[in-house]
Amino acid sequence: MSLRQIVCTGLASALLAGAAADRNSPPIPCEAVDSVGLATMSADGTITLVLRAWPKPPAESRLVYMPGDSQYGDIKRHLGDIAPGQSKEVPPLCGTNSEP
């Protein structure tokens, strides 16, 4: 699964969960979402993503990427400046949700 699929799946799940919870509410635009989860880099450089769906029902998915993983570089680039021992919010990939 690519970074785009991972983050968009998390965002899509969040948006679909919200739509399922209240079909009369307008969809939430991607640009209105600050974060789809939390990324943490361990001392050895492993990146753990905890992606969440919201608002109802709440759900989480945990994905782990070690240095050398084929998608590690893409994930690190998407997160931006992250160093061992740090955690930061995972931004959505706005504008790319319909791309494969």
**Biggest beta-sheet profile:** 4 strands, antiparallel
Structural class: alpha+beta
Look at the structure and give the mean pLDDT. 74
How many strands appear in the DSSP assignment?
4
What does this structure look like?
With 100 residues, the chain is α+β, with helices and mostly antiparallel strands. The protein has 2 helices and 4 strands, in the order H-E-E-E-H-E. It has helices at residues 3-21, 72-79, and strands at 37-41, 47-53, 59-65, 87-90. The protein has a 4-stranded antiparallel β-sheet, covered by helices on one side. A hairpin with a 5-residue loop joins strand 2 and strand 3 (59-65). 20% of the residues are buried. The model is unreliable at 4-22 (pLDDT under 50).
Keywords:
single chain, 100 residues, alpha+beta, 4-stranded antiparallel beta sheet, 2 helices, 4 strands, elongated
